[in-house]
Amino acid sequence: MQKAERRVFYLHGIAASSGDASGPAVVLPPVHRFLPERESLSVDQERQLLEKGIEQALDHLRRFEEGQPEPIREMLHLQQVFLRDPQLADEIEIQLAAGYNAPTALFRALEVLKKRFTESANDFYRQRWVDFEDAGRTVLDILLGVSYEETCLERVRTAGDRPVVVAFDLAPAMYLKMPKPAAIILRDGGPSGHLALLAANQGIPILVRTGPAAEFERISDGNWIEIHGETGAVYEARERMSDVIGASAPTGVREDNSITLADGRVVRLSLNADDAETIREHGLHHRVSVGLFRTEFLYLRDTSLLFDEKRSVAAYGEVMRAAGQDGSVTFRLLDVDEDKFSAHFFTKPGNRGLRGADYYRAEPEIFHAQIRSLFQAAIEHGSGAELRIMAPMMRTPEDWQFVLSALQAEQERSGYEGPFRAGMMVEIPSALFSMERMQHSVDFFSLGTNDLLRYVIGKSRSQPAPDDLYEPAFYRLLFHGMRRIKREVSICGMMGARVEFLPLFLELGVTNFSVPLGAYETVRQRLMSIDPQQRMLRALLRMQSRAEIREALQS
Ligand SMILES: C=C(OP(=O)(O)O)C(=O)O
């Protein structure tokens, strides 16, 4: 009989990106932990401290405005308006009267306003909250004498071995500034939030929603911990090693990226990747086909690229070179979602909240500059790799026609004659009703199931329930859209990386599965062993409940 292993068990979470990993924990405290515990001085004295902090922040914002492009000046100006807003002053006054010291009063006031603004029916307030909160954080940093973001980044940078980052939540923009961790554990966060997707694409295991603070806080800085991707469990580490131990690609011969199914059909397996380094590493063992490169992350890392075509050509070129001559990369045009937000993406405040073709129509310079850079990168650095450009958030044939005309015009202007394919994402339910009409002018469709599902069930991506994946209406819609499609249909949403859904997507006609690095090998194995004759769609379409569908898919 085997001797039972006794190791410290810390907690359980949802594995948003599979794979095992271990490393020393770096715990990033939430912002409220930075608040001083000191006794309050008199209300007047605390008010004076706050007023001084606000003045310094206003001064900083005013100085920073100089020489910035118009959209940034506009944002900095609004941040100053916010810091002088009577709503903020009133909330601060309430907190001071309740006896809180200056930083705590400001923190609490910002929490109250966050709720008010983000739940407001007014688009302007909702969309501007990110900027307002940022201005509030600047004052808080001044009052505390430390920068919250810099302090967190410094802890990760100085952790030595590749650490496991443990945090309540983590913004994608902050993650993009850190060195790659071995893994991430979040008390909150959602499995299809953009931080989870970013990490998954880099093959970094991530556990989210680990639940109660008490369990979560048993992990302290420097504890060596081990994450088990399959079970979502976190233990004390058996050995001190920081490499990902479960998600790596096989060594030896370079794998082809097409898989011949048992019935002779050929499907392609591609990678969702957001950086050249991951693509390069993958390319050591595989012929590379990137099915989704989210270009907004490139810009979030370095917003100045947006207005610098020469440097963006170099950045796209690096990605194409990483894919190699026989590879292909599907670049998705800029897609600005709430949690991939940067004020730099908008030249006019009124454009915030626009997405897809509406955004491209409103921001023609950014739109055309991006397409030009992509063709130019293919000319200068592509050396035969296939360039694929994909438009997100397409709703109607008119949306697609608008993007396609711009692609054709820029291709002609650039003189690029290499391999090129133009496609669109299907991630808004209304697109499913026009796929058939659009297919004559589309080289490929790509199913964005992360967004598609959220729009069908009307939920935010950070509040998923495991059962949502089995929503009957979702499958009926997919079937309706795809039943007469002759073009390539890819899937780049996370459902394509879950083996239980593979037979169904094959039956629906998907021929290209684009998945995060951590899921690549598992999906490849499953596709090679799958029985492609399995038929479940008809029965599934008759099912009325999520439970029935779950059982059918899992059995
Ligand atoms: C791949 C998708 O796009 P994103 O996750 O970037 O919104 C999707 O919605 O499935």
From TrEMBL:
Signal peptide as annotated in the record: none
Segments forming domain PEP-utilising enzyme mobile: 164-232
Residues annotated as domain PEP-utilising enzyme C-terminal: 256-530
GO molecular function (one): kinase activity
UniProt xrefs under Pfam families: PEP-utilisers_N, PEP-utilizers, PEP-utilizers_C
Cofactor(s) this protein requires: Mg(2+)
Domain (Phosphotransferase system enzyme I N-terminal) ranges: 12-128
Assigned keywords, A-Z: Kinase, Magnesium, Metal-binding, Transferase
BP GO terms, sorted: phosphoenolpyruvate-dependent sugar phosphotransferase system
UniProt family annotation: Belongs to the PEP-utilizing enzyme family.
Matching PANTHER family: PHOSPHOENOLPYRUVATE-PROTEIN PHOSPHOTRANSFERASE
Designated name of the protein: PEP-utilizing protein
Organism: Leptonema illini DSM 21528
